[in-house]
Amino acid sequence: MAKSGVFEGDPTTVVKAVELKKELQKMVRAIVDEDDVNLEALDRAQQMLFALRELKLKKTVSLKLHNHHYDHEMASETVPEEFKCPLSKELMRDPVIIATGQTYDKPFIQKWLKAGNRTCPLTQQVLSHTILTPNHLIREMITQWCKNHGIKLPDAVSYMNEEGLTGADRDHFLSLLGKMSLTLPEQKEAAKELRLLTKRMPSFRALFGESLDAISQLLSPLSQSNCETVVHPDLQEDVITTLLNLSIHDNNKKLVAETPTVIPLLMDALKTGTIETRSNAAATLFTLSALDSNKALIGKSGALRPLIDLLDEGYPLAMKDVASAIFNLCIIHENKVRAVRDGAVSSDTEKDHE
């Protein structure tokens, strides 16, 4: 005999279950007592068994919700559409806004962008940038809705995203950027670590595209030094090399080139840095010039002149990067004109006489 209380809770459910059990008992007795098999009675008994099973399943799901466990199949029917990610169709845990103003769950839109997509999945508009801005309003509304419905979602910051970064990694990243505005020893330490992290972990390169002022923070020691004092050569080298590392990430190229301080500081590094810094500055311009819009921007900024000057100096370490940058920039006609004007044609035949 079944234990009492299996269906306790909703009075309607309890009454219905009791009635089904009584009817089923009668039907079973009738089937057992009859000499011949009554197919209609068997079908009816089977229907009652299915009905009892459905009531039991309904009660199980109800208990899960009561105990604050999120059951997607049950809850998806009642979750407001504005709380669902357009990509996953599930309740969002970490809603973020993209350039077009649409909101997505962060892990899913990051996966979309990582796959090389540069459009909004909903509107198909081309994204002007890939910065993801937290949607605090929707987040609060989802939190309140979950509270009202007895659903407990995992904390978004405790998730590992698809690139393997944790909330602690992001906090560390922001901490390093913060040190770039402190004392010289702290700037040097932070710049060295950012250089290593962006070299070893592609996920850290992507982080620069998610924060509106991350690149400006990285470059702040070089920007300030132009007005105050000569930049420390090791610090300049680490910052420029970090810029090269994060420029490798396709989704960063447009953002990096269009950050106002980037190209002027790269031009300054071409003139004043160590030979490794100058070579890496040239490599950064080459990497950024993969986009035609960046080719035009770099050319208009006057970067061809310091590149050609460095080519004239003939340092073996820098020659390949410098020549590659000049060649790539000159794919567009207006930069060819600028290069000829700045002496590129004669740079391999004329020598400086000091």
TrEMBL record:
<dbReference type="InterPro" id="IPR045210">
    <property type="entry name" value="RING-Ubox_PUB"/>
</dbReference>
<keyword id="KW-0808">Transferase</keyword>
<dbReference type="InterPro" id="IPR003613">
    <property type="entry name" value="Ubox_domain"/>
</dbReference>
<feature type="domain" description="U-box">
    <location>
        <begin position="78"/>
        <end position="152"/>
    </location>
</feature>
<comment type="pathway">
    <text>Protein modification; protein ubiquitination.</text>
</comment>
<dbReference type="InterPro" id="IPR013083">
    <property type="entry name" value="Znf_RING/FYVE/PHD"/>
</dbReference>
<dbReference type="GO" id="GO:0061630">
    <property type="term" value="F:ubiquitin protein ligase activity"/>
</dbReference>
<dbReference type="InterPro" id="IPR016024">
    <property type="entry name" value="ARM-type_fold"/>
</dbReference>
<dbReference type="Pfam" id="PF04564">
    <property type="entry name" value="U-box"/>
</dbReference>
<dbReference type="GO" id="GO:0016567">
    <property type="term" value="P:protein ubiquitination"/>
</dbReference>
<keyword id="KW-0677">Repeat</keyword>
<keyword id="KW-0833">Ubl conjugation pathway</keyword>
<protein>
    <recommendedName>
        <fullName>RING-type E3 ubiquitin transferase</fullName>
        <ecNumber>2.3.2.27</ecNumber>
    </recommendedName>
</protein>
<dbReference type="InterPro" id="IPR011989">
    <property type="entry name" value="ARM-like"/>
</dbReference>
